[in-house]
Amino acid sequence: MSFPDRLRFLLVTSCGLGLSPFAPGTVGTLGGVILAVLIQALAGESTLAWWWGAAVVLFVLGCMQTSFVKRTFPNEDPGAFVLDEVVGYLVTISVYTAIAQKLPDAAGHTAAFFAFRVFDVWKPQPARKLEDLPGALGIMADDQMAGIYAGVSLYFVLPWFGW
């Protein structure tokens, strides 16, 4: 594998998290949690802008990987490709923070992780339909819709728990 393809592989597998033999999507989502918490620790009041920026950049980079996915993986939406989960988590936490106007604490990140996983697995429409988009765009887009659903649901559910 060439050096650029190795970098692509690290990107789409979230530094290897997607290679987990058990629930690679769930393990891959942890890459999003780690990135979000790191940004929150470093960015202070500009955290939300950094989350959105990281989500956009990673989404675009992920969508550009169609030819790499076709020549590297045996199916169109390989389990090892977890960059979509990383970006989906960033979208979840960004949507929640934008609506709630407050940064999440550890409990908020935990709730966001579980909410995103529920919506990513469930894939209510139009998320499921977005999977039909061509190439890596289809891999990436459904998780972003799941992230929007999860972020909005957190806004309505977390106050019930006093958060």
Structural class: mainly alpha
Helicity, as a percent range:
over 70%
Query: Mean of residue pLDDT?
Result: 95
Q: Give the domain tally.
A: 1
Rg estimate, integer Å = 15 Å
**What's the β-strand tally?**
0
User: What is the terminal separation in angstroms?
Assistant: 47 Å
Spans of at least 5 consecutive residues with low confidence: none
Keywords:
single chain, 163 residues, mainly alpha, 8 helices, globular
Give a written overview of the molecule:
The structure is a single chain. This protein is an all-alpha fold. It is built from 8 helices and no strands. It has helices at 3-12, 24-43, 47-63, 66-72, 83-100, 106-122, 127-130, 135-157. The radius of gyration is 15 Å and the shape is globular. The chain starts with a helix and ends in a 6-residue tail after the last helix.
Secondary structure: elements and pairs:
Elements lengths: L2 H10 L11 H20 L3 H17 L2 H7 L10 H18 L5 H17 L4 H4 L4 H23 L6
Quick rundown:
By secondary structure, this protein is mainly alpha-helical. The chain has helices spanning 3-12, 24-43, 47-63, 66-72, 83-100, 106-122, 127-130, 135-157. The protein has one domain (3-156).
